[in-house]
Amino acid sequence: MGFRGEEQQFKVYFADVPVPSSVLWMDSVRTMNYTSVETNRLLFGSYSDPYFGDVQSVAVAQFRPTLVTTFIPNDAVYDSAILQFQYDFYHYGSAGLSDFSFTVHELSTELSFYDQYFANSTANYVATPIGSLATTIDADYFTKEAEDTDKDSTVLAKIYLDNNFGQRLFNFINPEDENFTNFQLFKKQFKGLAFVPNNTDKVVGISTGINSYIRVYYHSGTTSNYQTYQFTTGAAFSKISSDRSSTELSGLTQYHTDFEPASNRYIQSGVGLITKLDISAFYDLIEDYPNVIINSVELSINNIPTQGTKKYPTPLALVMLDENNKFKKLKTKQDTTDYQAFNNKVILGTYINYDLPTAPCMASDGSNLFSLTYSSTNNKYVGYPTLAFQQLYALREKRYPYWAILPQSPAFAKSLNQLVFSKDDLKLRVYYTRPNN
């Protein structure tokens, strides 16, 4: 007569699925400024952290003349060379106002604009500096300006460079000489600059845009003029190193090798530390039931310590890993077929990092990039990749158990934001419906 019987044919269950995890150190984190649509930034400075050890970043950049057709008078006399750069207000390390000093060196390694450069790339430089600056950085002011939507503030640094270096640049100005006009030849004589931290307790970001340059000033009679050398179109990258020997991560010495610290899990941009998830237990949960509907999936990281001066990366994304612990790439026709079978429940990795153009990333229920979003109120990261897990279940004949938690913002390769959490606070809860028999 249409009345529901006492015995229901289906029942909703939930399970807290174990998620074994480890920490991976990823090779080839490209810190080179590469495309106009990604964050273009150089990082330099250093800081110490009880969880991640001593971190240092050296900024490396080529420069080239902007005017190669303008002659200077024969009686022109060199005056000075000044390096200027613009802070982009990114910072990481200590809070408040503190000393910040560094030296500027000529590179002894020639860079190629056609190569890619990474956090662990070689960047040799001449030991004797050609300039230095002792200043202060106010992290609180940088934070305020970084969050200012007007973006109308500009903070510049200016450094007088060694006169011998400046004179060499001045003597090289000759529109009739291919060594000056052809950048491939010019960079053999002037390979670039390295910004090396000295007394610092933070890392800062600088722009390679139009407000960052070298200017060589000269005069002819009573008329003064200058030649500008820009950083905008040359190779530029951040060389980032980390000494973890006094931390729980001291045993992490090999790239792409599972490391399981006793208590915590770690994520650190720039250096390339990520947390790997193994969701094999999800497949184990459902493999005995051929007819299951995934109602809801919640992935969370709980009990995050209150955010202090070192900001957390947020949001976080999930990127598929291969069995070799490298980011999964679509290399074969079968890889592409497998990717298409996900029906937009995974999307390609350019949403996170332009080094991951073919790495599948977990999608949200709206077919955008899935995000684990941080809540300072609840002290947790949480996200709901329900439809993605439904598709994992639908494709269960071929398992995809390994995923990496990767910072989405700030950019993984252009920042040093970090996160530490207990391995026991990583939770995967699955609500599902199955026949009640």
Percent range of helical residues: 10-25%
| Biggest sheet character | 12 strands, antiparallel
Number of strands: 25
What's the mean pLDDT score? 92
Structurally, the number of domains stands at: 2
What is the gyration radius calculated from CA atoms?
A: 26 Å
- Uncertain residue ranges: none
Number of helices: 7
- The fraction of residues assigned to DSSP E strands is 35-45%
Taken from the alpha-carbon principal axes, the silhouette is elongated
Structural class, from helix and strand content? mainly beta
Cα separation of the termini:
24 Å
Explain what this protein looks like in three dimensions.
The structure is a single chain. This protein is mostly beta strands. The protein folds into two domains: 197 residues; 201 residues, no CATH class. Helices cover 12% and strands 38% of the residues. It has seven helices and 25 strands. Strands 3, 4, 5, 6, 7, 8, 9, 10, 11, 12, 13 and 14 form a twelve-stranded antiparallel β-sheet that branches. β3 and β4 form a beta hairpin. The longest helix has 9 residues. It is elongated and about 100 Å long. The relative contact order is 0.23.
Which secondary structure elements does this structure contain, and how are they paired or packed?
Blueprint: E1 10-17, E2 21-25, E3 42-49, E4 53-61, E5 64-65, E6 77-93, E7 97-106, E8 131-138, H1 139-146, E9 156-160, H2 163-171, H3 178-181, H4 183-189, E10 193-197, E11 202-207, E12 213-220, E13 223-230, E14 236-243, E15 264-268, E16 273-278, H5 280-286, E17 293-301, E18 316-320, H6 333-340, E19 346-348, E20 360-362, E21 373-375, E22 380-383, H7 386-394, E23 402-407, E24 418-422, E25 426-435
Antiparallel strand pairs: 1-25, 2-16, 3-4, 3-11, 4-10, 4-14, 5-13, 6-9, 6-11, 6-12, 7-8, 7-10, 12-13, 15-24, 16-23, 17-22, 17-25, 18-23, 19-20, 21-22
